[in-house]
Write a structure and sequence with these properties.
The chain is 57% helix and 17% strand. The chain has helices at residues 14-20, 26-96, 102-117, 183-206; strands at 120-123, 135-143, 150-156, 158-161, 164-167, 169-176.
Length: 207
């Protein structure tokens, strides 16, 4: 007869179940690994947030530096152009008298082209509405040819760079002519009254 294996009964799975169960040392090790993974994820999120914050601060710094650089450039260009405005005024007066000819004309045209490229714009034309933000009225009159305050003469053109007014245009302004007095209407009514009284005068002569 064949001897049965000692300690193991047929159909007894208790040994297999015991092999599947974690040991007392394996269970704490798994929990510790889970805690370390959670800690690592939290630290990664914190470092990512720090990196994003630093990147945003750097982008804001670059924008601020670029904005300041443009501001300094505009101020420097504006200061230079302001010193050239009297020269441009002289050129304009010489042009009005027909004195801008020959080599002087070439130089003046080049100068006006350069300042225009730098952003200097001339404004102020006869016939445009008067704007106190753009014009300075040096002379005032009334005219029946206008329906609103109008620049009828530009004594000195204005200059601006972008939206910044360097110098307002010096102009003569005409306002609409006030309405004529009611004297004309009364004289017309007096004439009609005289026509009405004429028959009475004729009747008196017949009597």
């Amino acid at each position: 007869m064949t001897e049965k294996a000692q300690g193991v009964e047929p159909g007894d799975d208790s040994g297999a179940d015991q092999a599947d169960l974690p040991t007392a040392e394996e269970a704490p090790a798994g929990a510790e690994a889970s805690d370390e993974l959670a800690t690592a994820k939290r630290e990664l999120a914190e470092r990512t947030a720090d990196l994003q914050r630093l990147q945003a601060e750097y982008q804001n710094y670059r924008k601020r530096v670029e904005r300041d650089r443009l501001t300094v450039r505009e101020i420097a260009v504006s200061n230079i152009l302001e010193t050239l405005i009297p020269v441009l005024d002289d050129i304009g007066r010489a042009r009005e008298h027909g004195e801008v000819t020959g080599g002087f004309k070439s130089v003046s045209d080049n100068l006006e082209t350069v300042v225009a490229k730098l952003g200097l714009q001339q404004f102020g034309k006869e016939g445009e509405p008067f704007d106190p933000n753009l014009h300075e009225a040096l002379m005032h009159s009334y005219s029946s040819d206008v329906t609103e305050d109008t620049c009828v003469q530009v004594l000195q053109p204005g200059y601006r760079i972008g939206e910044r007014i360097i110098r307002p245009a010096m102009v003569a302004v005409a306002e609409p002519q006030p309405g004529s007095p009611a004297g004309g209407g009364s004289s017309a009514s007096g004439g009609s009254a005289g026509n009405e009284t004429a028959p009475e005068a004729d009747g008196a002569g017949d009597n």
